Amino acid sequence: MEWLIAPLEVSFVQRALWGGLLVSAVCAVAGTWVVVRGMAFLGEAMAHGLLPGVAVASLLGGNLVLGAAFSAGAMAAGVTALGRSPRFAADTAIGLLFAGMLSIGVLIVSRSQSFAVDVTGLLFGDVLAIRARDIAYLAVALGVSLTVAVLGHRAFVALAFDPRTAHTLGLRPRWAQAALLGLLTLAIVASFHVVGTLLVFGLLIAPPAAATYWSHRIPVIMVLAALFGGFATVAGLLVSWHAGTAAGATISALAVALFFGSAVAARLRAPVVARMTRLRGRVPVPSANFVVLLTVLAAVLPLAGCGADAEEPAPAEPPHGYVAGAEETDSPQSRLVVADAEGAIRVVDLITGQISDAGRVPGTVRLAGDDRFGYPVTADATRVVDGGGWTVDHGDHMHYYRTTIRDIGGVAHGGVTGVNSDKMVTAMVLGSGMAARTLLLDRAALDTGTVTERGIVDGVAVPYAEHLVAVTGSGSPEVRARDGGVVTPLTEQCLEPRSPVVTRRGVVFGCADGALLIAADDGRFAATKIAYPTPVPAAERATEFTHRATSTTLAARAGDRGAWVLDIDARGWRFVETGPLLAVTTAGSGSSLLALTRDGVLHAHDIATGAETARAQVLTEPVSGAVRPVIEIDTNRAYLNDATGRAVHEIDYRDNLRRARTFPLDIAPAHMVETGR
Predict the structure, then answer these.
(1) CA Rg, the chain, in Å?
(2) Distance CA 53, CA 105 (A)
(3) What is the pTM of this model?
(4) How far is CA 201 from CA 255, 362, 586, in A?
(5) How many helices (H) and strands (E) does the chain have?
(6) How does DSSP assign 121-142, residue by residue?
(7) What is the spatial order of strands in the sheet that 366-369 belongs to?
(8) Would you give the DSSP letter of residue 319?
(9) What would the pLDDT profile of 260-316 be if each residue is shown by its tens digit?
């Protein structure tokens, strides 16, 4: 039974299960009336009518649920108002509003070049991204739905079968109609996060429609619909886990399959019902539904008995990269670690927007970082701050984790210029050039909250391909064991080594005459020099590379003239003349070069031609003094710390440098690194 139990041991699958069960119950309550009253087209129209509100909320960086609720409320109000007109039938009003709201949503989406990626979860759902607070919202939605259904049951029944009788009995059919629309709106808004606006119709209609084959009583239909929806949720999550399919779409497809299965069962049951009808009155005969139920139990109970007699399954092994106390998630847990000039540390959760206090490190002069930790650096020491999120890459799949944000200690070594880690070693580069050394920490111990030094090696060293790749002070590259012992010297030279970064193609070191790439292939290491196209003065050399994690395109400032772009795949440099820059980076090949100038303007340049393609005033005021903002970049967004404005700005660099969100802070973020990628 490991195939059944293992997926449900993962925390984000558990949240998805609870969320899906709650959504199934909410949809069962509203969907029953939709089916009974023949309001299916209205349900479909309202599900698609969410798009304008969610699109606006996404573009403005607001709450998507509130945007969906506003849009659905407007749709419901429009249907109510137009439905009173004697000039045309109600379905005409619904069709007009359906087309109008969908068109507005598409127009809004078309204004953003990157919205197609952002809206995927809206259209198709992301049940695996359900959080604890979403479950709380769904529980409240279920409570409200049940309350409305119980209090309005008599009016809803009368409205469904004879509105004139409802009016005669003083049940106010117009108010009942409005309450039903509100119930439908609540179900759709609650469900779109799970299965998306394109698939919510299946979960809203299919389970209640399937239930009508088994009962004609409204309360029983609701209960059966909730059970059918719950079964579709559990089975859909299991199928999605093992088959690698989209969870929301799988749940919706199974719900529809249950409807067709019920239809077939009802067709096969008809002869049984007829025979029992003839026998009834002569001998006591159980109902046909009871017979079907007994048949299902007869098939299931032996399986349950086999499961009970089976040996206890061995405990499942923890997922790859798991650390005790961590929680596995379905997506990267990206965080920003920021610090002010006085050393106050904050961590910004880029998923939830929550800002956490991570303590204080007085005298912080810079922040270094790796995939999980931020490292506030002072003149004589370095602290380690757990950003609370990390990614474990296994080549063909990823594991994502999150845990408590905390300060876990430090080392008595200052002047750290860079940090790189793998699963066994964290390498802190102390200083640069000929005097550089590298402090090695035990990464496995660091993951558990203990700072353990493993020694210091001469030169600039980086963990790579289960070894240490290093360049000595004399400029000689070497491959060493993780304990620092020399394994293989390499050819080529790299004078004044600095700014090592790890890419998919290997480790890149900045050198006095260009860059050195050290790559591994089947355990064999090779060094390749990528020289500048012409001799470059010392003031214009690439001394600090920036890039998107694992990207093979790097960027660096070129003094006061502009920026360098190093294409690892093409083994070549490109110079982009921009004038003096404070910060520069790029997301990779085919993306723009992002450059920040001292006037607080962010510029986007075409890497191939150097032409400016967009610009935006991002910082509150021009930057003065020695303050140097940072641009962190990932696959969708760039982040820029604004010390004067006491905020961090999220930039959609694929949409003309649109400011997507701003995270206000209680400190002036002079330093920043991104973790959790």
Answers:
(1) 31
(2) 8
(3) 0.67
(4) 10, 56, 41
(5) 17, 34
(6) HHHH--GGG--HHHHHHHHHHH
(7) 366-369, 373-377, 382-386, 406-411
(8) P
(9) 888 888 887 666 555 655 555 544 444 445 444 444 434 333 433 333 343 444 444
